[in-house]
Design a protein that fits this description.
Elements lengths: L2 E4 L1 H13 L51 E6 L1 E6 L9 E2 L11 H9 L4 E5 L1 H9 L4 E5 L4 E4 L1
Antiparallel strand pairs: 1-6, 2-3, 2-5, 3-4, 6-7
Helix pairs in contact: 1-3
Protein name: DUF3085 domain-containing protein
Length: about 150
C-alpha cells in the first residue's frame, strides 16, 4: 500500500463544516453508547434493550445527534478522500492527490495503489487535521493493511 497526501486547502472545507455544525451523524459504534440515547438505554428498532436476547442492532435514529462527537473519516470507494459526519447536509470531500474521480483519469488505480482494492471507512482523530492546518502542511496518511499513520 502507500501514502495518501492531502493538501491543507482541501482539508479546510471539511474542518469548516465540523466547526459550523451543531449535530453529527452517529457511527455504528456510537449506537452502543447509552449516553447518546434520550433514556440512556441502547435500544433496537423494536425497542429491545441491549441486554435483551431479542436485541438486533442499535436504532441510530433514536440517538440525540447533538451529543455525537464530530468525526473525520478516511473513505475509499469512488476515489480516496476525507469527509466528516455532519448531520443534515452532505459533507465536503477532500480527495487525496491523484484520487479524485472528477479530475484524475487514473484515480481508480491510484486509490488502489495507496489503499488497496477493498472499499472502507476509518474514523481518524480530528486533532491531527487541525494540527496540519495550523502548520500549513500537506497531511500524509501512510496506509497499510494493519494501520494508518498520520504525519505532516
Amino acid at each position: 500500500m502507500g501514502v495518501a497526501k492531502f493538501k491543507v486547502t482541501e482539508l479546510l472545507s471539511v474542518l469548516a463544516a465540523i466547526e459550523k455544525a451543531n449535530e453529527f451523524n452517529p457511527s455504528f459504534t456510537d449506537g452502543f453508547k447509552s449516553d447518546l440515547y434520550p433514556d440512556n438505554k441502547v435500544v433496537d428498532k423494536n425497542g429491545n434493550e441491549l441486554e435483551s436476547v431479542d436485541f438486533e442492532t442499535p436504532d441510530l435514529s433514536l440517538i440525540d445527534k447533538s451529543l455525537v462527537e464530530p468525526k473525520v473519516m478516511l473513505k475509499k470507494d469512488e476515489g480516496l478522500y476525507l469527509m466528516c459526519n455532519v448531520a443534515g447536509k452532505k459533507s465536503p470531500l477532500a480527495y487525496a492527490e491523484g484520487c479524485n474521480p472528477n479530475t484524475d483519469n487514473d484515480y481508480y488505480d491510484k486509490s488502489r495503489e495507496i489503499a488497496g482494492g477493498d472499499d472502507f471507512c476509518e474514523y481518524l482523530p480530528i486533532s491531527f487535521f487541525f494540527k496540519a492546518v495550523a502548520n500549513k502542511r500537506i497531511l500524509h496518511l501512510e496506509i497499510t493493511s494493519e494501520k494508518i499513520e498520520i504525519s505532516y
